[in-house]
Write a structure and sequence with these properties.
The complex is a heterodimer.
Chain A (H helix, E strand, L loop, with lengths): L1 H13 L4 H18 L6 H26 L8 H20 L4 H12 L4 H8 L3 H24 L6 H4 L2
Helix pairs in contact in A: 1-2, 1-3, 1-4, 2-3, 4-7, 5-7
Chain B lengths: L4 H10 L6 H26 L1 H9 L1 H7 L6 H10 L4
Helix pairs in contact in B: 2-3, 2-5, 3-4
The chains are: A mainly alpha, B mainly alpha.
Chain lengths: 163, 84
């Protein structure tokens, strides 16, 4: 489930649910995923299935909240727009997972965890002055890795979706 | 074409921060609850009185069976037994 935890979490955040509702959806999503795992033989089908399930649970939760507090108007439209982008992000993280540990960690810390050079330097025992260049080199490796995965047929259109 | 694909990759990396550790740990423990969950479901299917207890108070029924019940596990049993 670790492979998908960020993706599911990001979808719950896109729907702007209160955190306790978002956590319920997160847990419910994985509970249902565990129940259905044996019926999902195709790895490629799992990610879209999981996204669809998370989305549906978020919308259910928004509707339930709207019934309890009719003044709030649930607007899942904006979140729907973000899911495609999150799917692109998932594909990039899949490529990241194929990089050597030193690149995985520094890119994840800097971009996904938003850690400062100083924090990264302390955690990885690196001089702050070398971090920027290492990030740059690792991004290049990620681009190359991502290009290979694209060639291998994975879905993502990094260039087009930036417009 | 985006002239700076690395920048775009960086943007996408930033879109998936880690989920809170407690959430992930709780989700990882869900399969550990399955044996207790399966036992409760089986008993409810075989024992009408126990099923009534489940319908009346799901959490009490879990406690009676000695199963620690988090919200997701309770919800899973509710679904499997088609409880209201």
């Amino acid at each position: 489930m670790e492979r998908y935890s960020r993706y599911v979490y990001a979808i719950t955040q896109a729907f702007r649910l209160p955190q306790h509702d978002a956590e319920d959806v997160f847990q419910d999503t994985f509970a249902r995923a565990y129940e259905r795992l044996h019926t999902l033989r195709d790895d490629d089908a799992f990610r879209p299935w999981l996204a669809s399930l998370t989305r549906r649970l978020c919308i259910d939760r928004l509707r339930a909240s709207a019934r309890e507090q009719p003044m709030e108007d649930p607007d899942p439209g904006a979140a729907e727009d973000q899911i495609d982008e999150l799917t692109n992000a998932f594909a990039v993280h899949e490529a990241l997972a194929e990089l050597p540990e030193n690149c995985r960690e520094i890119l994840d810390r800097f971009f996904a965890r938003d850690e400062s050079y100083r924090t990264i330097g302390q955690a990885l025992d690196l001089p702050s002055g070398t971090i920027a260049s290492r990030i740059s080199r690792c991004l290049t490796r990620l681009r190359e890795q991502f290009g290979e995965e694209m060639t291998a047929g994975r879905r993502l259109e990094v260039d087009e979706s930036s417009s | 074409m985006n002239p700076h694909p690395e920048e775009r990759l960086a943007e996408l990396l930033a879109l998936l921060p880690p989920a809170p550790r407690g959430w992930v740990e709780a989700a990882q423990e869900l399969p550990l609850a399955r044996p207790g969950l399966d036992r409760i479901v089986a008993r409810a299917e075989a024992d009408a009185r126990f099923r009534e207890l489940l319908i009346a108070d799901l959490e009490a029924a879990f406690a009676q069976e000695g199963v620690e019940a988090d919200a997701a596990t309770i919800e899973a049993v509710r679904r499997r037994l088609s409880l209201p």
